Amino acid sequence: MSRIGKLPVPIPKGVKVTTSGNTVTVEGPKGRLSRDFSPQVGVTIDGDSALVVRKAETKEGNAFHGLYRKLLSNMVTGVSAGFSRALLINGVGFRAEVKGKSLILTLGYSTPIEYVFDKDIAITVDAQNKVIVSGADRERVGQVSAEIRSLRAPDPYKGKGVRYEDEKVRRKVGKSGVK
Q1: What is the pLDDT of residues 44-90, one digit of tens each?
Q2: How would you classify residue 88: left for phi > 0, otherwise alpha for psi between -120 and 50, otherwise beta?
Q3: Is 152 part of a structural domain of the chain?
Q4: Which of 55, 80, 105 is the last residue of a domain?
């Protein structure tokens, strides 16, 4: 039995979890998320907790048990508290600014890069070099953060580029002159 899958998902006040067929919908103060679950697992709701149960004792059922429990937990956390990811921009002249629903990044290229984001994602900029991506869906927050980071990945020699706030960039020693 999955150690993660057997744990109940606590449902905080103000969050509503509903199921219809294989679709699970979670509504809360930060938004509404919906996901289709595998037919090998089901969700039972009792009061202030939800439990993901296996319908069949198969190898795939065991794998899906823990996966869908964590996905349901992320949905509940997302609509109640939300998720955020911070990115740092390092480099001379590198900066970011938000205009409407687009992020304008100056990353050392000949022209600024315009990254347009959806309404389910909120992007804020602190002091022109810290970008905070936030939203209710953990997957979307991670994907948008990865796309922004890929525009100029951190350079191992000078440390320039876009990196996650908690990321450690391993610096390399440059080429030294031969005597």
Answers
A1: 998 899 999 998 888 888 889 999 999 999 999 999 999 999 999 99
A2: beta
A3: yes
A4: 80
